[in-house]
Design a protein that fits this description.
alpha+beta; SH3 type barrels; five-stranded antiparallel beta sheet
Length: 142
């Protein structure tokens, strides 16, 4: 699911991949629905390719968003109401207990929380695709 959701450096918000052109991607803003091109020189990353550092191994963003959804009962998270940097880090520790505190910055945590809110606002509430769930189930069974 998150493979088609993109973050583009220098552009606010998240975008949905609509189509591919010759030297560009056609993307649609999740918040406004406006379509724009994203060129080869833009730094574009799929949310499906992002992982959060932990003490042992990196955790895919989809799993972090799922545990965040569980903690927040499927509701948006008010980042400003959480408090200062220490409070935000403590909140994120409840979501992902073993995140690497040296390599995960508070700005990264705020970005994940904001992405979660933007995805909810766009009506995207399923973060882990069925294929990922099957893989996780198979890994546990081995």
């Amino acid at each position: 699911m998150l493979k088609t959701i993109l973050a583009i450096s220098g552009k606010p918000g998240l975008f949905k991949l609509v189509n591919q052109g010759k030297n560009m991607l056609i993307v649609e803003s999740l918040s406004t629905g406006k379509r724009t091109p994203a060129y080869a020189h833009d730094k574009v990353i799929s949310l499906g390719d992002i992982a959060i550092y932990t003490v042992e191994e990196d955790v895919p963003l989809s799993k972090v968003l799922e545990s965040l959804k569980t903690k927040a009962d499927g509701k948006p998270v008010d980042v400003k109401a959480i408090g200062d940097d220490a409070d935000i880090r403590a909140y994120f520790k409840e979501v992902l207990p073993d995140f690497d505190e040296d390599r995960v910055y508070t700005n990264d945590i705020k970005k994940v929380l904001n992405w979660y809110n933007q995805l909810l606002a766009a009506g995207i509430t399923e973060f882990v695709s069925p294929e990922e769930e099957e893989e996780a189930t198979e890994e546990k069974g081995e």
